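Task: complex structure prediction.
Instruction: return structure tokens for all chains below.
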Amino acid sequence: MLLAVLAAAAVLVVVAIVVSGGGGSGDKAKGRPAAAQKATGAIPGQKESAEMLAGIPQSNIYLGNPAAPVRVVEFADLQCPFCREYSLQVLPRLVQDYVRSGKVRMEFRTLSFLGKESVTAGRAAAAAAQQDKLWNFVDVLYFNQGEENSGYVTPSFLQRVNRAAGVDPAKAAAFAASPASLKPLTTANALGDRLGVQSTPTILVGRRGGKLTAVQADPTDVSGFKAAIDGALGQA
Amino acid sequence: MSDRRLRQVAVVLAVIGLGVAGYLTYVHYEGIKPVCGLGGDCEKVQTSAWAELAGVPVALLGLIGYAAILVTLFIEREEALVAGALIALVGFGFSAYLTYRELFSIDAICPWCVASAVIMTLLAIVMTARLLRVPSDHRGAIPYVG
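Output:
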């Protein structure tokens, strides 16, 4: 009796393990079969970022319709915990409500002032941008963000994030190691200085071609950002 | 320990498990951050790829599991005992796997999840102990001693 129960339990556990960790219905809906995720080694955030960004055009650091009337510019450090909160709690709502409908185009500017690992992660982000997968990369990285400068941004960590974000890891590693990967960081730094960015995350909102204004809002609460975007959309 | 005492222990464990899994299910559907002490990162665990099984939150599966075990404890039939032990053992095995993922894949620990894993482990032990008390030649309903 006991042996039969143990055997049945073992079979059920094995089935549950095979189904878990990336085999959810959401992946299948987005054309990412469980087997593909298993092969790449599913990590936290893979499913969520794929779902959030599915079908939205990306070009280098930009996300969404190039002709969108409003632009939202995010200045963030990949090691900054509040940037993570914004990215995981607020961004999905904004993408769903404004970017997906073509009203907003987003732009991600990577700052790297928190230390050596911010630079390493930032250069990897630049490589993901080269493959038009920056937003997936950033989102997956935030899901897996570790303790600041604790040594977690290793080549194998970046490889896992790249795979989960749909970035070609070999090409990305080669670009990240080249001097060209530093350019977007210096550009973002200079632009941030020019726009008066003093902390991260700083989110600026404005009409296309118009002046950008920093949103003064709790980075974990979507309402302040929605109000700013609605305001920009409402301007004639 | 008598079967009556084992059953009482199992009822207490299943009720505590219901509370833990119920809380985790609640925060999952409400989208709020769980209260997470002991240096854990419940949010990271709750938002990981392993937080759902075929689209169903594992917290909800736990809730259903504890409820089912509780129901079997009040049915005086051998089939109910077998079903209860089976659910507890499956719960134990899957909890062990999820704890492994917390430690080695997600790199974060959710104390609520660990609490549930401990409760399910204890339930698996108690339910297996009850099952071992059933005579091997027994075919009918077990004598109720509760």
